[in-house]
Amino acid sequence: MESVDCVVVGAGVVGLACAQALASAGREVIILERESAFGTGISSRNSEVIHAGLYYPAGSLKARLCVEGKHMLYRWCEARGVEHKRCGKLLVATRPEQVARLDAITAGAAANGVDDLNRLERADVAALEPALDVHAALLSPSTGIVDSHGLMLSLLGDAEAHGAVLALESPVMSGRAEGDGVVLDVGGEALMTLKADWVINAAGLDAVALARKIVSPVQSRLPVARFARGVYFTLSGKAPFSHLIYPMPEAGGLGVHLTLDLGGQAKFGPDVEWIDSIDYTVDPDRVGRFYDAIRHWWPDLDIARLSPGYAGIRPKLVGPGDADADFRIDGPDQHGTPGLVHLLGIESPGLTACLAIGRHVERIVSATQA
């Protein structure tokens, strides 16, 4: 049985950020990924938005790690040449009764440390984005977009430069807490057993399932895994917008909004539905739902320009109708099991927060071993 300091399970953007943080702190790190490439799950099926941190409850992990991670991510991308853009976003009030909510969102954002929002009235919005027809808006200049694959390449490269090793096609079959660490049985072409001082469960959609495979006292306190599929449609031709456009937040999500990729391609989504298993199907017949939602703020949209895009799935810790859940980063202080950290419910803004999550995990490891 081989022994290693740290094992990170999952080579998505969050797992790679954890590996980078641990490796750069001088720890021996193995990254286990069951697929044949890194970043094929949540990390490759999202809107690639760098969120500002407007909506999350003050003091929550989502709020703290999003705002901290946003600043870290911009610095990382600038220093390492990862393509990104501070394009800004407009949060729009499409009905008169929504205008007052802009003030509440501004106050909530300020409580999270976001103090750069600008209130725009109808004429200001029209001057900035003539195709929009809204009553008022908030401009968030620190919202942006990033090349998520380029980001993951840079994180992996830095982790490997500090000695980390990525093992692809290496699924964790089972595990157990043992002494001050965790033993993992790893499948793949060559079966192996690893004894790790620390196991970081960053398995994304499979994080709860993986946590249940590791026999420990933690299992009785694990949540039920739920999945929410977000469907995206793309826009043919050039969009008449230079900013991301978001309607008012809705129960369970941020509504159908417009995002841009770094090539200027516009996409709309996500239209969210609850599902029982992993399924990335996009139903073309949902185009009418998108069209109706978008025309609340872009009345001149031609429905013929919309076509099915892709779907992404979020790992949820609550069900339909429940208040949204915070990130769960459960280390020994939460569950009492040495050498084990579970990252559960790491959905949006996980991409934005990835570097801050990595630093948070490294601090858990360092504080426990101090």
What is the element layout, followed by pairings?
Blueprint: E1 2-9, H1 13-24, E2 29-32, E3 49-50, H2 61-80, E4 84-85, E5 89-93, H3 99-111, E6 118-121, H4 122-128, E7 136-140, E8 144-146, H5 148-161, E9 165-167, E10 172-178, E11 181-186, E12 192-201, H6 207-213, E13 214-215, E14 226-235, E15 244-246, E16 257-260, E17 266-275, H7 287-294, E18 306-316, E19 328-330, H8 332-335, E20 340-344, H9 350-369
Parallel strand pairs: 1-2, 1-12, 2-9, 5-15, 10-13, 12-20
Antiparallel strand pairs: 3-8, 4-8, 5-7, 6-7, 10-11, 11-12, 14-17, 14-18, 16-17, 19-20
Helix pairs in contact: 1-5, 1-9, 2-9
Describe it for me?
This protein has 370 residues and is an alpha/beta fold. It has two domains: 2-47 and 149-223 and 324-369, FAD/NAD(P)-binding domain (3-Layer(bba) Sandwich), CATH 3.50.50; 89-141 and 226-316, D-Amino Acid Oxidase, subunit A, domain 2 (D-Amino Acid Oxidase, Chain A, domain 2, 2-Layer Sandwich), CATH 3.30.9. The chain is 28% helix and 29% strand. The chain contains nine helices and 20 strands. It has helices spanning 13-24, 61-80, 99-111, 122-128, 148-161, 207-213, 287-294, 332-335, 350-369; strands at 2-9, 29-32, 49-50, 84-85, 89-93, 118-121, 136-140, 144-146, 165-167, 172-178, 181-186, 192-201, 214-215, 226-235, 244-246, 257-260, 266-275, 306-316, 328-330, 340-344. Strands 1, 2, 9, 10, 11, 12, 13, 19 and 20 form a nine-stranded mixed β-sheet that branches. β1, α1 and β2 form a beta-alpha-beta unit. α2 (61-80) packs across α9. It is elongated, with a radius of gyration of 21 Å. It starts with a strand and ends with a helix. The mean pLDDT is 95.
